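Reviewers of the previous submission asked for a worked example of the structure-prediction workflow described in the proposal, so we include one complete record here. The input consisted solely of the amino acid sequence. No template or homolog information was supplied to the procedure at any stage.
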Amino acid sequence: MPSSCDPQYAPAGDVSAAMMLVDSRLKAIYDGRTEIDPERRRLDEQFTASLGPTGAQDLLDGVCTIIFMYMKWLRLACEEHDKDVVEYVVPNLVTTMLRMSRSIRPAAVPTMAGLAIAAGTGLSPSLWRQQYGDWTRDEMNALEATAFLLAEVINRITDDEDFATRLVTDALTSADRS
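From that input alone, the workflow returned the following structure tokens.
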């Protein structure tokens, strides 16, 4: 019997816009910028504010879709090496997020761990999160960081700084052709 959190019931959201935000963070880090440029942050905030309530929800769903895609890829990669994705990925994700205390409140970390675990076990992160009410403001940076950190894990595994971005863009291109 399918779960109410089965991905087939989840909205994909605005994956392109979500990918743009994640890719922008990846590029900044790879270019050696450890701090987020205040101008870039302002532009990102302006962009998300311009989306309105429906667009903002689409962006949230898009980030959750990316998290699902990344965790699915990681699960398959882990299974090839007889590893469990939750055991391999989630502890490092949590530890890294707890170290990011200036931008991520510790109270948001368990929710992000739950999102990653839900995705790693084949559930929709957005539908899993929906069970617990509306998103909070404190979860926004944590959600973005979760997608970014998972992308970084994938890029390190593949030794390719663009692999995680290509993974999503190739899936979008394939979906457009279907």
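The mean pLDDT is 89. We consider this example representative of the routine output the project will generate in years two and three.
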